[in-house]
Amino acid sequence: MRLSRYFLPVLKETPAEAQIVSHRLMLRAGMIKQSAAGIYSWLPLGFKVLRKIENIVHEEQMRAGHMPMLMPTIQSADLWRESGRYDAYGDEMLRIKDRGGRDMLFTPTAEELVTDIFRSHVNSYKDMPLTLYQIQWKFRDEVRPRFGVMRGREFYMKDGYNFDLTKEDALHAYNRHLVSYLRTYERMGLQAIPMRADSGPIGGDDTHEFLVLADTGESEVFYDSAVTDLSFGDRDIDYSDVAQCAGVMEEFTTKYARTDETHDEALFHAIPEERRRTARGIEVGQIFYFGTKYSEAMGATVQGPDGKPTPVHMGSHGIGVSRLLGAIIEASHDDNGIIWPEGVTPFHAGIVNLKQGDAEADAACEAIESAMEALGLEPLYDDRNERAGGKFATMDLIGLPWRITVGPRGLKNGVVELTSRRTGESEELPPEAAVAKLAEIYKGHMVKGL
Ligand SMILES: Nc1ncnc2c1ncn2[C@@H]1O[C@H](COP(=O)(O)OP(=O)(O)OP(=O)(O)O)[C@@H](O)[C@H]1O
Ligand SMILES: [Mg+2]
């Protein structure tokens, strides 16, 4: 991609309405534009990152054996009356009437619809376990939409639903989700800590939220500092292995980590004082086991091994896909702008031409561009007739983790400069070596983009 042809409406001024750094940077970097309170257009750069995040979520869900599908955003109120949530949901639900006067709504979540699909098509325990999921726009008419995409009214969410014959099977599904979520967030360069939480309007007993520690987070959290030493890493996992998944669950949830809703002072004070932490966190996901709450209300039963109709055990599991952009930026930025982790960066490296129009410099940039593309890497080539300072500032703002700087002086010695956005460190090397190094860096971080 050439910057001269890209749509990147960078803002010079810091937008006054944005209170937190991720919101400011997303507006300044031309990633989003507000269209109404809590509702945003995703401009090309923002959309690219959104798709990367979405694709990581898909890859990890499919790896866990969960099945992607898509349900409508506009749903009939009738199903929601069956579960009792049409009235219970309150003002957060956006209610709509169609031309025939029928009550419709914009989906805030999809337990009812997916349960209806299940009960229409699955009759036997032999067709389970089953986990269906989607990544789809949701709408919740939040009282106070704020912080940009972090608390929108329209937002993009992965929601998954497991259907199991027994509570034991459903708890395995719960553990599978926990493991897949740990992998998902780590691939995005994030540490998201599972914390015991409150179930809210979804209902149910067992639930964990995943929180990214950040001063701007809306949740107050209490934890044993030992939880921040845990990481899933690149260990192998067999998602059908019940004991292995339960082991990961235990490893990541035994140490004290709770949100304020379930915080217990006595348990907290049992932790050695030097390990007690009180902080703030951003909720980027939540998993629930709620048993037969919806299956009983909506008659989702299957024939069990004994031939008797049994209500299925369910859980639902969400990831805040659009909120994650904000959370990642909160966790990874500096005074000059965003610093994307390799797994989600919109472009793999920026190419900065210090002397646009110089035949040699132009040719070298184009050669690097083609060499990267040949390896499946996406460069963003700043080919504008701008001063070097302006080009560097744009690259720093939009946060590509690597930059290749090309100028006549270096080319005389056969080298270009490869700079890390995170450390600011630069290295001079021949263009082919710089491209080879990028290919090495991105091994294991290649995610399908756009
Ligand atoms: N208004 C929102 N804007 C952006 N993302 C959201 C919003 N509400 C929820 N999410 C994301 O969707 C995920 C799953 O939704 P869930 O039903 O658990 O939300 P929630 O617990 O009501 O969120 P919150 O407590 O932040 O309002 C959340 O973990 C969060 O990451
Ligand atoms: Mg939640």
TrEMBL record:
GO annotation, biological process: prolyl-tRNA aminoacylation
Pfam families from the UniProt entry: HGTP_anticodon, tRNA-synt_2b
Top class in the EC scheme: ligase
Cellular component annotations (GO), alphabetically ordered: cytosol
Entry's EC annotation: 6.1.1.15
Keywords in alphabetical order: Aminoacyl-tRNA synthetase, ATP-binding, Cytoplasm, Ligase, Nucleotide-binding, Protein biosynthesis
Domain Aminoacyl-transfer RNA synthetases class-II family profile per the UniProt entry, residue ranges: 38-341
Catalytic activity line of the entry: tRNA(Pro) + L-proline + ATP = L-prolyl-tRNA(Pro) + AMP + diphosphate
Molecular-function annotations in GO: ATP binding; proline-tRNA ligase activity
Subcellular location field: Cytoplasm
Top-level taxon of origin: Bacteria
PANTHER family xrefs: MITOCHONDRIAL RIBOSOME PROTEIN L39/PROLYL-TRNA LIGASE FAMILY MEMBER, PROLINE--TRNA LIGASE
Summary of the function given for this chain in its UniProt record: Catalyzes the attachment of proline to tRNA(Pro) in a two-step reaction: proline is first activated by ATP to form Pro-AMP and then transferred to the acceptor end of tRNA(Pro).
Protein family per UniProt: Belongs to the class-II aminoacyl-tRNA synthetase family. ProS type 2 subfamily.
Assembly and oligomerization: Homodimer.
The protein's name in its UniProt record: Proline--tRNA ligase
Lineage: Bacteria, Pseudomonadati, Pseudomonadota, Alphaproteobacteria, Rhodobacterales
Gene responsible for this protein: proS
